[in-house]
Amino acid sequence: MNGALLVAGTTSDAGKSVVTAGICRWLARQGVRVAPFKAQNMSLNSFVTADGAEIGRAQAMQAQAAGVAPEAAMNPVLLKPGADGRSQVVLLGRAVAEVGALDYRDRKPVLLERALECLADLRSRFDVVVCEGAGSPAEINLRDRDIANMGLASAARLPVVVVGDIDRGGVFASMFGTLALLSPDDQSLVAGWFVNKFRGDARLLAPGLEMLRGLTGRPVLGTFPMLPGLWLDAEDSLDLASVAARPSAGGPVGAQVLRVAVVRLPRLSNFTDVDALAQEPGVLVRWATRPEELADADLVVLPGTRATVADLAWLRARGLAEPLAARVAAGLPVLGVCGGYQMLGREIVDAVESKSSGPVAGLGLLPTRVVFGAEKVLARPAGVALGERVEGYEIHHGVVAVEGGEPFVTDDAGRPLDGCRLGPVWGTTWHGVLENDAFRRAFLAEAARAAGRAFVPAPDTSFAAAREQQLDALGDLVAEHADTDALWKLIENGAPAGLPFVPPGAPAPLEMGSAK
To answer: Among the options 396, 397, 431, 481, which is catalytic?
Structure first.
């Protein structure tokens, strides 16, 4: 078999990433060697592969769903927006340029060639490649140089299924409108629909599905129910409004809840670092943008950012710097990760991301100095922290010089590897350290003691197992609620011939309220 499929969406956050992951897990369970692919991703959440390439977190998650190692070919183009309206272009895992929107547009023909090469390479090594689109395929102002949606599908002759989010409303209009705005050639590749995030009585929805088929000539291939509590690496949108705090399950009997406030920086990156905290029993994670939201927190986390200097200025303007300093003076714990760690130091010199002409004063809560280098550090390190083995990944331009305190991570001989600790303040450049179960429990226990909380971490929480359960739930979603026979035919044979063209404003072949 040498099949492929493109999962597009009527909007950002329609569910493309999770549907793609669900199809990957469904296929993998049947012994199919499957790989995910996203030609172009705009995201501030990224991951480092085993060979040191940077790709979108969603593609790493989808690779896990497929049971294969993530690699650069799965996300050949990654765009990382910065503070000045420009984006860093990551090509095949390496940063190659900083561009504005119009500059990037001029690069797209070459990038499409690279994306098609990567797709062809994956198809030569895997039975099936499940591709994910970006945004909407009906962005008609961008179609002439599209490399992620119909531009890719047309060049590679991929069958396309379109996901619509019924929970936000207007799903039938968005699906019909998406199809109607496409050219005849693009329409010929759109083979069906997925309705996502449905809640309610399916009998009420059924007439609408039949009418949609009559209006478009394409069937609804599945209606997926809302999955409460889904938290897997959604990252293809810069709008983080959907990133909500999640209270985890209750902790041991008699234990107190540990309250964690995560500062929601404007250019927040790798917010998945706090997912492991939110899965820990008895831990309540919430986002904070105001001083009063830090007041009763037992632990404050400063996460990563794509724009350290700009977000540090935002933090000060919001009045958050003083409460952080007061917490430290009172012995209450603060954890900084990557960009958040850089903010905690004494001084930042950044002529790379912020183009600042001189040093910028940090928060002064750690004895460190940061100098940004032109080369991005990408690594998958391992070491020891609080007596426990830890693994993580590094993605940063800022190089931290530690001038006091204790190391956060050491090697087996106790030599410093990364980070700094001074009293209740911790900092590390390593993303993903909190996914290490034993270390996370040890860190939370120490943070709880410093905060005076009688919090006892659960002894058997496995973050990796929790992620696998989420991926299994997505595989179940596809197996139980999709027309899998029709999916197989699309993957093996492509879009069926003779699909009707639907011009904009075409009269409906079905009268409202009828379903023949």
So the answer is: 431
Using DSSP, state whether 369 is helix, strand or coil.
strand
Give the chain's length.
Answer: 516
Largest CA distance in the chain: 76
Is residue 29 within 8 Å of 477, Cβ to Cβ? no
The reply to whether 420 belongs to the active site is: no
Compute the distance between CA of residue 509 and CA of residue 214 in angstroms, rounded to an integer.
6
pLDDT at 159 over 80: yes
E strand segments, 265-319? 268-269, 283-288, 299-302, 304-305
Q: What's the mean pLDDT in 385-395?
A: 97
Q: Given this model, what pLDDT does residue 255 score?
A: 57
**Of the candidates 425, 432, 417, the residue with the CA atom closest to the CA atom of residue 447:** 425
More confident residue, 250 or 459: 459
Distance between CA atoms of 404 and 428, rounded to whole angstroms? 14
Beta strands in 332-367 (DSSP E): 334-337, 347-349, 360-361
pLDDT-based confidence at 235, cuts 50/70/90?
low
The owner of tokens 């293809």 is 236
Bridge partner list, 129:
4, 35
Question: Among the residues of 86-149, which ranges form H helices?
Answer: 101-125
Q: What angle do CA 264, 395, 44 make, to 5 degrees?
A: 45
Q: What is the mean pLDDT of residues 372-378?
A: 94
Q: Which two tokens stand for residue 395?
A: 């993605």
Q: Where in 292-367 does DSSP place strands (E)?
A: 299-302, 304-305, 334-337, 347-349, 360-361
Mean confidence (pLDDT) of the chain:
91
Tally Cβ neighbours within 10 Å of residue 113. 12
Eight-class DSSP state of 377: E
- E strands, 170-297, in order: 190-198, 220-225, 258-263, 268-269, 283-288
**pLDDT of 13-36, one tens digit each?**
899 999 999 999 999 999 999 999
CB 227 within 8 A of CB 199: no
**Is the pLDDT reported for residue 237 higher than 80?**
no
Which residue from 154, 173, 126, 102 is spatially nearest to 32, judged by alpha carbons? 126
Residue with structure tokens 């890719």?
A: 152
Domains by residue range for the chain, with CATH = 3-232+467-493 (3.40.50.300), 252-457 (3.40.50.880)
The stretch 105-125 carries a mean pLDDT of 95
Tens of pLDDT, residue by residue over 314-354, are: 999 999 999 999 999 999 999 999 999 999 999 999 998 88
User: Active site residue: 118, 131, 338, 420, which one?
Assistant: 338
- Are 152 and 146 in contact by the 8 Å Cβ rule? The answer is yes
pLDDT of residue 236: 42
Q: How far apart are CA 13 and CA 416, in angstroms?
A: 41
Give every CB contact of residue 333 below 8 A, 6+ residues apart in sequence: 298, 299, 300, 327, 424, 425, 426, 446, 447, 450, 451
